[in-house]
């Protein structure tokens, strides 16, 4: 019998610590090689830590929500077989899966490859697989439990399908049943009931980061929000035609790529809006490259993947990148690099976009453009009301460094570009 | 006309019904059970128990006959064995008598009221019983139908005269010279084998291409081999057509289409059993049906509130232990306990020579469900205890999931393997994996070691082969 210590691996360039956001195991659990044992979170990306060995968890080194330094031990696993008596090595973090697909426009500096110094895990391969375990019961199959467990569950009115079995082959044990019962499976009661419980939910992980960032943005930045309506009838016609005639290998265009290209044009004339304001140092960093953050709702919460160098991408390239990043963010595979480095942000709630919003600036940027819902509204053309596709832009600016006049000029420029979309594509 | 009322009325005192009644009585439920014949039903009176008695007697007789003929490898010889079938039958009847009396006693001890007579539904809450002392009306809050099953009769071979059912075969006063068995299922083969061992010339006629068609060929091969050794003639793919004009032979259309005449002084018809759904007023309550059977849910409830059905009348497998488990469950449900049918294994035993046991899924059944399996068997020819019992034929076979080694099914064929059925069923019901069986010490020297070895072999490291 040996012991294997898993240390927090290097989860990203320049990251010295990470927050433990989820344990997938508890003490006494048997794990298989490659099974995920924990999830840690850096600035924005969540990284899953797999077990490099088969064995039994005997020690967990951190509480959920605790920040752990890279290299400090987080798990001890008792391993079977005649492996080395004391094996200590780092686990390899799950590699970001999207790396290979990342397009590299000419102007883009090659992104640093994720650190791969955690290779020693490979050296542990000879450890024999423990055969005392069984794979858990596949989804949808009858729960596996001894007749005594089944009887107890039935009498307690507990549906065994709700209980994850920890026994061999996913068998539900008496202990599993005890644990489930102790957590208090709610017994449905007829009629209206006063409820007195208060559930405490620890704000951890992504939620904590969002909370901190929002508080920072709102406490430091005096926001000015400017709402203007945009007639997108012509833009929508163009978009429909491009989608109808596009090559099959091209993505379907949404409004976002058009807006990105318009943004590139607008900030070329007003570079003060494509900037990072380091308020501690009192320095504004105006960026030559336009790196557009796109706020996206994901199952885990709000994330802002970044389309890097929008100025070097044409309409289709923007669309491809938007789709790729949206997928990666939803799947939770977006890398730290893909989630940082924006210089200006677009936020859109799509069909839920409402009439107007008051977007919160993605600190330390100085501008955010909010897209509201497209609605057909009656517009006066000088002689009659005509139905037009109208969309509001609700944009916020850091009033410390952006004057109201500049903000208005910027939004009017965006409006002009979007209302006559050919102008988006005319150079010079 | 007398009238009584009770909380629970059970119709039929077979294994399902009497178990239900005993358990209900233990739980303090005011229970009445109605039985037309004797407690114990088919199982105790004309099924499981008497047939096993006759099979055992036949085995013993065959052993001494072999010893008398000087062919026993054990080196034992004797002279002049004789069989008095009437005494054998009387011995069997005493066993049956003891058991049925025992059941009656158990019912009494559980404070269950027994009513003898033929029951008939008047409506969903009322049953009338024709008793010796007149019509008895019983009103009950809850009724359990446990009427069981009866042998299927062939229209061209009606029971009577030389044509007998399994019930008739168990009551024969002398061994027939030539016995034709129509139907090569487990009942026909069990009885046919017994009579062959007692000296009858037995011919089995089976319409399907194989005997014991519900089992796979691998499992039935040792049985077919043994039948041949016992001189039993097996005609597969053959159809019985009726009795000859003189009534001394069975007419058969053989597999090749030719007409054959099989001399037989008795024709045993064992072509299956059917649920007893007639003669007790099912039409009065109009329950939903599932084919020939009464449809039940996972709590044995029928389509009518307050009426349950258990046992053979509710479907396959028509086995006493299934009925007993259902009966016990229904009694507890009636007592207000939360129970439902959640069994993973209903083992089945076939008391042929050698015996066949199945529990859970066969390899083919598992594959048909789309499960990737691992399966291996261990032969009794490599088992020491089997050798000492002259029982080297057969094997134990295990079917497990390929991914997590969960045991899905266990089958065995071999001498005395019926007693392994409990280990097989326990393994499946507990959710055992191959490693669990492989990690359990099995006593040496026993045939159960073949079970251990089959698990090891499926894992790829059998020790004794």
TrEMBL record, chain A:
PROSITE patterns: BIOTINYL_LIPOYL, LIPOYL, PSBD
EC id: 2.3.1.-
Domain Lipoyl-binding residues, every copy: 3-78
Pathway info: Amino-acid degradation; L-lysine degradation via saccharopine pathway; glutaryl-CoA from L-lysine: step 6/6
SUPFAM superfamilies per UniProt: CoA-dependent acyltransferases (SSF52777), Peripheral subunit-binding domain of 2-oxo acid dehydrogenase complex (SSF47005), Single hybrid motif (SSF51230)
A GO molecular-function annotation: lipoic acid binding
Span of domain Peripheral subunit-binding (PSBD): 144-181
Location of the region described as Disordered in the Swiss-Prot/TrEMBL record: 88-143
Superkingdom, taxonomy of origin: Bacteria
Enzyme class: transferase
Catalytic activity: N(6)-[(R)-dihydrolipoyl]-L-lysyl-[protein] + succinyl-CoA = N(6)-[(R)-S(8)-succinyldihydrolipoyl]-L-lysyl-[protein] + CoA
Gene3D superfamilies, A to Z: 2.40.50.100, Chloramphenicol acetyltransferase-like domain, E3-binding domain
Bias (Low complexity): 103-128
Cofactor: (R)-lipoate
GO CC annotation, single: cytoplasm
InterPro entries: 2-oxoA_DH_lipoyl-BS, 2-oxoacid_DH_actylTfrase, 2-oxoacid_DH_E2_comp, Biotin_lipoyl, CAT-like_dom_sf, E3-bd_dom_sf, PSBD, Single_hybrid_motif
UniProt keyword terms in alphabetical order: Acyltransferase, Lipoyl, Transferase
Subunit description: Forms a 24-polypeptide structural core with octahedral symmetry. Part of the 2-oxoglutarate dehydrogenase (OGDH) complex composed of E1 (2-oxoglutarate dehydrogenase), E2 (dihydrolipoamide succinyltransferase) and E3 (dihydrolipoamide dehydrogenase); the complex contains multiple copies of the three enzymatic components (E1, E2 and E3).
Function per UniProt: E2 component of the 2-oxoglutarate dehydrogenase (OGDH) complex which catalyzes the second step in the conversion of 2-oxoglutarate to succinyl-CoA and CO(2).
UniProt similarity note: Belongs to the 2-oxoacid dehydrogenase family.
Protein name: Dihydrolipoamide acetyltransferase component of pyruvate dehydrogenase complex
UniProtKB/TrEMBL annotation, chain B:
EC number: 1.8.1.4
Binding site for FAD: 52, 147-149, 312, 318-321
UniProt cross-references to InterPro entries, sorted A to Z: Class-I_Pyr_Nuc-Dis_Oxidored, FAD/NAD-bd_sf, FAD/NAD-binding_dom, FAD/NAD-linked_Rdtase_dimer_sf, Lipoamide_DH, Pyr_nuc-diS_OxRdtase, Pyr_nucl-diS_OxRdtase_dimer, Pyr_OxRdtase_I_AS
GO biological process: 2-oxoglutarate metabolic process
Binding of NAD(+), residues: 183-190, 206, 272
Residue ranges annotated for the FAD/NAD(P)-binding domain, each copy included: 7-327
Active-site residues (renumbered): 444 (proton acceptor)
One Gene Ontology molecular-function label: flavin adenine dinucleotide binding
Domain Pyridine nucleotide-disulphide oxidoreductase dimerisation: 346-455
Primary enzyme class: oxidoreductase
PANTHER family for this protein: DIHYDROLIPOYL DEHYDROGENASE (PTHR22912:SF160), DISULFIDE OXIDOREDUCTASE (PTHR22912)
Name under which the protein is recorded: Dihydrolipoyl dehydrogenase
Organism (species): Aminobacter anthyllidis
Taxonomic lineage: Bacteria, Pseudomonadati, Pseudomonadota, Alphaproteobacteria, Hyphomicrobiales
